[in-house]
Design goal:
Shape: globular
Distance between the termini: 39 Å
Number of helices: 20
Number of strands: 25
Largest sheet: 7 strands, parallel
Strand content: 15-25%
Structural class: alpha/beta
């Protein structure tokens, strides 16, 4: 078992990084519960986090406000810790329509979801790593506060099979079915097993691997393991099989739980009948009895999580088990972009409760369904480990709770915060066209931020008619088109990208030297102090970074954001002058194809037995990379798929 995090990087901490690392580590070792890393955009906050992780040496959870940022952090931490268990844990739904009821129109909407199997695998991998080792770093979205099933039960259900162990074909198959693996003798896939004569193949969840059992005369004759996709089977003396689902329970516990569910059903039906709600009573009895029958026969039913309180033997109102319960008590927690993440945690429970309360009132669910929920904020705070809030704009909550606020104002590249200029809105487009022309001559890119989707589209069209290469991006642009748009901007296929507020956090666009903010004086969510500071940060990755705010008035938010940016720029200029250093632009390569120096193992073909399954797996990975705006990774996976298809 590995115990130590090993940070691998050709860079050493620079700028304010060494000071921030020292302050945060000292605060944690002093026993402080909360601290803040206040780092400006481009100051290398992720590298600072990695250094803190290595020095503290604790299992680590990094929570980020959305899947795109999670994916970027996951890739960065994997590069920093290639010899450790770095995992990815986000909602595994590509599409999710929660169960709900609209009494105004008497419309019941059944739960409908499309599960991304690659993300499902990675969720299992994260949990299995936490159970088996200490050098674990999990990058998660806010889904980590949703119910997941008991860690004790998940671990208890893992089975170890040894060579020579007495077990029949039927007994092994029964064990696999208890672990919620499905039998499919025609197409082997994750969470399935197939039977071929004396052999049983199991494609596990978690690590992408296939386990092969050979059973003869009631004993395990041979065991093999094969990593997907290369398919080289290696002889083993024992194999471990983890559950295929998080919601799982022993048969005896299921029987006991069903009795409790039946008792609640009886009491609730009587309550509804006393309230003259006969239709609701009949509906609840019919639906719940069907679920009970499914649970009794198969150990699983659609919506099993709504009965989790009984399977986990939790008292009424007790919080559910979540990913956080799989961590030891002394773990390290980073709340990335905390100014966004903390409000998300606060709001999740109430929205879930309101929807479920309607389902309960109208006889679609038992009242115990309320205990399948995300954590309340106070419950979340009780489960956190030693916590570091990470943000360029921490809110009052972070500041008030932190024993230490480590500022990271000086970037390792010594780049300055952008210059800011306020211009009147009259003739703003004409003026903006002139500014764009200046930047185009230097081969630089421009972002233009509007307040509405229609204006973004109209302005992009106007630019094109004026012979300016431009595109727009907003929430209605298809997810899979966004990576290409951003990649084309960086490559110079067009010069101006018009957007709304989707360009604030997490996007690395070092070619952008100018950001124009239209209607900067329209006070509101898109133009508040936090949003403006985050937007301005997008221009701080370029030595000639500049912000132009088109406004006729200076709002309070504008004034505070401008003052904060100017204060930071002054600190940076004084530091550079004192230490005689010059700002340096560091850009990342835009890859279009697989690297030419790949290891031979990576480019050889998979075992033909699993080639079709591997292409299916790669297509899931390609879809996920595109959704997460990882256009470099998507290009690599696409070329790999094409190469494998040619060999079919």
């Amino acid at each position: 078992m590995k115990d130590k995090f090993e940070l691998v990087s050709k860079f050493e901490p620079r700028g304010d990084q060494p000071k921030a690392i020292k302050e945060l580590v000292s605060s944690i070792k002093a026993g402080n519960q909360f601290q803040t890393l206040l780092g400006v955009t481009g100051s290398g906050k992720t590298f600072t986090m990695a250094n803190v992780i290595q020095k503290v040496q604790r299992p680590t959870l990094v929570v980020s406000p959305n899947k795109t940022l999670c994916a970027q952090l996951y890739e960065e931490f994997k590069a920093f810790f290639p010899n450790n268990a770095v995992s990815y844990f986000v909602s595994y739904y590509d599409y999710y329509q929660p169960e709900s009821y609209l009494p105004q129109t008497d419309t019941y909407i059944d739960k409908d979801a499309k599960i991304n199997q690659e993300i499902d695998r990675m969720r299992h991998e994260a949990v299995q790593s936490l159970i088996g080792r200490k050098d674990v770093l999990v990058v998660a979205s806010i889904s980590c506060i949703y119910g997941l099933g008991s860690p004790e039960t998940y671990q208890k259900f893992s089975l170890i099979f040894k060579k020579g162990q007495e077990i029949s074909h039927d007994e092994l198959i029964s064990h696999l079915l208890d672990l919620q693996y499905a039998r499919n003798d025609y197409e082997l896939w994750r969470g399935n097993f197939r039977v071929r004569g004396a052999f049983i193949d199991v494609w596990t969840l978690g690590k992408d691997q296939i386990l092969r059992f050979e059973i003869e005369h009631g004993k395990i004759k041979n065991l093999w393991i094969s990593g997907v996709p290369l398919g080289e089977f290696v002889v083993k003396n024992e194999l471990e099989v983890w559950p295929a689902k998080f919601w799982i329970s022993e048969k005896e516990k299921i029987k006991a739980s069903l009795k409790d569910i039946e008792m609640e059903l009886e009491d609730r039906v009587e309550e509804l009948k006393d309230g003259k709600k006969l239709l609701e009573a009949e509906r609840l009895q019919r639906r719940t009895e069907y679920d009970i029958a499914m649970l009794r026969e198969t150990g699983w039913c659609h919506g099993i999580e709504n009965y989790s309180r009984y399977f986990e033997k939790r008292p009424k109102g007790e919080p559910p088990f979540t990913l956080m319960d799989y961590f030891p008590k002394d773990y390290l927690l980073f709340l990335d972009e905390s100014h966004m993440t903390i409000p998300q945690v606060r709001g999740m429970n109430e929205g879930d409760r309101s929807r479920k309360k309607t389902l309960i009132d109208y006889g679609f669910r038992l009242p115990s369904a309320l205990d399948n929920r995300p954590l309340k904020f106070d419950e979340f705070m009780e489960k956190v480990g030693k916590t570091i809030f990470v943000s360029a704009t921490p809110n009052v909550f972070e500041r008030q709770h932190s024993a230490e606020i480590a500022e990271q104002i000086i970037r390792p590249t010594y780049l300055l915060d952008p210059e800011i200029e306020i211009k009147p809105s009259e003739n703003q487009i004409k003026d903006l066209m002139a500014e764009i022309a200046k930047r185009k001559e230097k081969g630089q890119r421009i972002l233009v931020l509007t307040l509405t989707k229609k204006m973004a589209e109209a302005l992009s069209k106007y630019f094109k008619e004026a012979k300016v290469k431009a595109e727009y991006i907003h929430s209605e642009v298809k997810t899979l088109e966004r990576p290409k748009i951003l990649a084309d901007l960086r490559k110079g296929k067009f010069d101006v990208l018009v957007g709304i507020n989707l360009l604030r956090e997490g996007l690395d666009l070092p070619e952008v030297s100018l950001i124009a903010i239209l209607d900067a004086d329209k006070e509101g969510f898109l133009r508040d102090e936090t949003s403006l500071i985050q937007i301005m940060g997008r221009a701080s990755r370029h030595p000639e970074g500049k912000i132009i705010m088109y406004a006729d008035n200076v709002t309070g938010s504008m004034k505070r954001a401008i003052n904060e940016t100017k204060k930071r720029r002054k600190i940076q200029e004084e530091y550079n002058k004192k230490h005689n250093v010059q700002p340096a632009l560091i850009t990342t390569d835009i890859k279009n194809s697989l690297s030419a120096n790949q290891a031979e193992e990576e480019i050889r073909l998979p075992n033909k037995e699993f080639l079709k399954e591997h292409i299916k797996r790669l297509q899931l990975m390609l879809d996920m990379a595109r959704r997460n705006l990882q256009f470099e990774k998507a290009a690599e996976i696409k070329e790999e798929i094409d190469r494998y298809k040619d060999s079919l």
